[in-house]
Amino acid sequence: MFRPLLPRLLAGLLAGLCATQAQAGLFDDEEARARINSLRNELAGRIEKVEANHARAQVDLANQIEELKTEVARLRGENEVLTNDLANANKRQKDFYVDLDNRLRKLETTPATEAPQQATPAAAADPAAESRDYEAALTQLRGAKYKEAAAGFIAFTKAYPASSFLPSAHFWAASALYQLKDNIGAAEQYNKVATQWPDDSRAPDALLGLASTQQARGDNVGASRSLEKLVAKYPSSSAAQIARQRLKK
User: Fold this and answer.
1) Which residue from 43, 83, 167, 185 could staple onto 197, CB 3.0 to 4.6 Å apart?
2) At residue 18, does pLDDT exceed 60?
3) How far apart are CA 208 and CA 203, in angstroms?
4) Do residues 82 and 173 share a domain?
């Protein structure tokens, strides 16, 4: 009676055991899938953050590049302006020297022909050497070789004390010394032109140069006096116009 029941019990136990194992396997698969999905979501989030950061970095870099381009363009523009201003200033300076010297030469040819009584003392000087030495110093000045130009003009004034170019030589010596920031030496040369040759075409510019040397040395009172003297004595000169502007400051 009990023997036929045993196989049934064994079969029931085996079936329950298999069902338990199947449920355990099912739970393991679901947990693994959950973990995989969690990792996928985490990875996707990180990728999004990396991509967002990368995009922001690219935008920032692009902005920085544009700013640098703008800055470079601005600096190039400023450099071009400064280069152009410097070139124009150098040209104006050379043109000023040439024009002033040409005007002086035209004025100097007249007294040279009207004063035959001076021919005898001047005969000792070689006219060709006199002209050559003056031109040599003037060439140095035009080439912005101020030290050589100053020495050349000062030597000229000593070698040719009766030369009709003497006022010009003193004036250009003063200009060269002023460029060398030798304000005392420049003032001495400018003052000679203004006092010894007051009717010379360079006298107004000499007073203007004298005021510049005084101002450079901090003598504002002396500079103002020189400018006022210039305006009073040569009111229609171009130097007087500059002097009026300086006196207003």
Assistant:
1) 167
2) no
3) 9
4) no
131 and 108 in contact (C-beta within 8 Å)?
no
Asked, for residue 119, whether it belongs to a domain, the answer is: no
Overall pTM surpassing 0.70 (yes/no) = no
Tens-digit pLDDT profile for residues 55-113: 888 888 888 887 676 556 555 544 554 454 445 445 545 556 666 666 666 655 555 44
162 in the same domain as 51? no
Specify whether the CB–CB gap between 228 and 130 falls below 8 A.
no
Q: Are residues 162 and 213 in the same domain?
A: yes
pLDDT tens digits for 173-187? Answer: 999 999 999 999 999
User: Which CATH number characterizes residue 227's domain?
Assistant: 1.25.40.10
Confidence of residue 45 (pLDDT cuts 50, 70, 90): confident
* DSSP for the chain, written as a single string: --TTHHHHHHHHHHHHHHHHHHHHHHHHHHHHHHHHHHHHHHHHHHHHHHHHHHHHHHHHHHHHHHHHHHHHHHHHHHHHHHHHHHHHHHHHHHHHHHHHHHHHHHHHHHHHHH-GGGHHHHTTS-HHHHHHHHHHHHHHHHTT-HHHHHHHHHHHHHH-TT-TTHHHHHHHHHHHHHHTT-HHHHHHHHHHHHHH-TTSTTHHHHHHHHHHHHHHTT-HHHHHHHHHHHHHHSTTSHHHHHHHHHHH-
Return the closest-CA partner of residue 148 out of 160, 138, 162.
138
Boundary-marking domain end, from 59, 89, 114: 114
Cβ contact 219:213 at 8 Å:
no
Residue 185: domain span? 126-248
